[in-house]
Specification:
By secondary structure, the chain is α+β, with helices and mostly antiparallel strands. It folds into 2 domains: about 180 residues, Fructose-1,6-Bisphosphatase, Chain A, domain 1 (2-Layer Sandwich); about 130 residues, D-Maltodextrin-Binding Protein, domain 2 (3-Layer(aba) Sandwich), CATH 3.40.190. The chain contains 7 helices and 15 strands. An 8-stranded mixed sheet has the order 2-1-3-4-5-6-7-8, with helices on both faces. Strands 10-9-11-15-13 form a 5-stranded mixed sheet, with helices on both faces. Strand 9, helix 4 and strand 10 form a beta-alpha-beta unit. The protein is globular, with a radius of gyration of 20 Å. The relative contact order is 0.13.
Length: about 350
């Protein structure tokens, strides 16, 4: 009989390999896992809770409440950050050494059509656990992240945990109420032929992204010398899990609609955790011009573009952006869809 390793056992084994480990980190991840089971149950009720935007808003609020409720009494945590704001945790005698940034239910806008959604989170160290947490404590570059994770809610509930030791995937056994290790040592292949990209945004893409897509559409006869598949699920959680398990590159770039706002995705609660997971799995993550993990956040609500996935494709997009900035891109004037559409 194959041995079943639960998330609790897995964390315990990892803890034993780290000198001076106190159990605070394992306890915090365990708290997130407990909340995610309750969120999975709530999401599974679907239309029983409402319809349309009312359902999406209710489930997003409920997911946030479930996470905050699970963390409220913890001694592992100093503060949380979500898209709705900063919240200190604990009091003078019970103040933890970690910070948790999270999006409780990313992709919730499509729950009314029973689509996949997810919880994304990252754990950082508090700069000074001896004092009350401050908002600026979260303004740390991605390189300082201790751990990041993704919970995907769909036909089954999957929990992906990325640490310095690697990236591992767990599946919730609903009969026993435990996450069980099912996808150990997740690793991104360096090359891929699958691109996640919103084609209807093509009119506002910057030239480097338009050039990249043009090369991909040219297929085996073009400069990339192979055929690509282009898709878009409109769910960062779903795309992240697919890329981690099947390979691929996700392209949600800077464009004319975000030039003043910075990008489409929340840096601290979405882009930074996903980038950290991708890099730990052997991939890479950039804004187009810069590494996501090197960005020092300027504010708690900073928005950024996000390109992540298989390292060769991210490197190609990075090179095209550099060429554009340096004036070396000679192809930007050619029409993108002059002879071939994304859909034929």
């Amino acid at each position: 009989m194959t041995q079943r390793i639960t998330l609790t056992q897995f964390l315990g084994e990892d803890q034993r390999t780290i000198e001076g480990a106190t159990g605070d980190f394992s306890g915090l991840v365990g708290d997130v896992a407990i909340a995610s089971k309750a969120i999975a149950h709530a999401v599974g009720k679907g239309a029983l809770l409402g319809a349309g935007t009312r359902l999406c808003e209710r489930l997003r609020a409920e997911a946030s409440d479930l996470l905050l409720g699970a963390l409220a009494a913890t001694t592992h945590l100093a503060a949380t950050l979500s898209p709705t704001g900063f919240r200190p945790v604990g009091d003078e005698g019970h103040r933890g050494k970690y910070l948790l940034a999270f999006d409780p239910l990313i992709g919730a806008a499509d729950l009314d059509i029973n689509f996949q959604t997810g919880t994304i989170f990252s754990i950082l160290r508090s700069p000074d656990p001896s004092r009350p947490a401050r908002e600026e404590d979260f303004l740390q570059p991605g390189r300082d992240v201790v751990c990041a994770g993704l919970v995907q809610y769909g036909g089954s509930t999957r929990f992906v945990l990325a640490t310095d030791l690697g990236v591992d995937g767990f599946t919730l056994d609903r009969e026993f109420g435990e996450y069980v290790l099912t996808n150990p040592d997740l690793a991104l292949p360096p090359t891929t032929d699958e691109v996640a990209l919103h084609a209807m945004g093509s009119r506002s893409w910057e030239p480097p992204v338009a050039r990249y897509v043009k090369e991909a559409l040219a297929g085996a006869e073009g400069p990339r010398a192979r055929d690509f598949r282009i898709r878009w699920a409109a769910s960062l959680g779903a795309e992240t899990y697919r890329i981690l398990t099947r390979g691929g590159v996700y392209v949600h770039p800077h464009d004319s609609s975000t030039r003043n706002g910075g990008g489409h995705l929340h840096l601290l609660c979405a882009a930074q955790p996903v980038a950290w997971i991708a890099v730990r799995a052997g991939g890479d993550a950039i804004t187009g011009r810069n590494s996501i993990l090197d960005l020092v956040p300027s504010s708690l609500d900073q928005q950024v573009p996000l390109i992540f996935g298989s390292s060769d494709e991210v490197a190609r997009l990075h090179e095209l952006h550099r060429a554009y900035i340096e004036g070396r891109d000679e192809d930007e004037a050619e029409p993108l869809f002059s002879s071939r559409s994304l859909f034929r």
